[in-house]
């Protein structure tokens, strides 16, 4: 770790941890959506929307703290990037749930459960990693595993697209389902962006 002569603002660590914990909440709502009857999905979407608003509040709190702090625990641009990428994850998960409800999708295609399982695992790893920003310890396995999960998500996404275009679905249904699986893929990408930012921070601080 780089030696510092000045104190650092430590509340950022707690705010990043809270933001990541909220993402775990969002991933659990995605899992709940999988097993829910279509009639129950609107209520799940409402809870997801509330979680997304909580995520926005957490992000704004980080930005406010960043703008009012003279000393920060690491580079300002990295704090901004990490907060923004965490916020993106929640936005994409909320969008996926909302699309399922708005499009009145009766049955999600086989493979979506694998997408969501990957997101749930990435959420758990991210929540576990955020407190370690205090010491920059035990983070290497985190970003390696999240990158592996993102590669797995890419493979699942490609298989889903092949399934959607195999002629089983009509054109309108393909458009609806493709948008949902594409947004879930964007969530996986956002998890990788978070992991890459953490890696960048750790390298700078070493």
UniProtKB/TrEMBL annotation:
<dbReference type="InterPro" id="IPR038078">
    <property type="entry name" value="PhoU-like_sf"/>
</dbReference>
<dbReference type="InterPro" id="IPR018445">
    <property type="entry name" value="Put_Phosphate_transp_reg"/>
</dbReference>
<dbReference type="Pfam" id="PF01865">
    <property type="entry name" value="PhoU_div"/>
</dbReference>
<protein>
    <recommendedName>
        <fullName>Phosphate transport regulator</fullName>
    </recommendedName>
</protein>
<comment type="similarity">
    <text>Belongs to the UPF0111 family.</text>
</comment>
<dbReference type="InterPro" id="IPR052912">
    <property type="entry name" value="UPF0111_domain"/>
</dbReference>
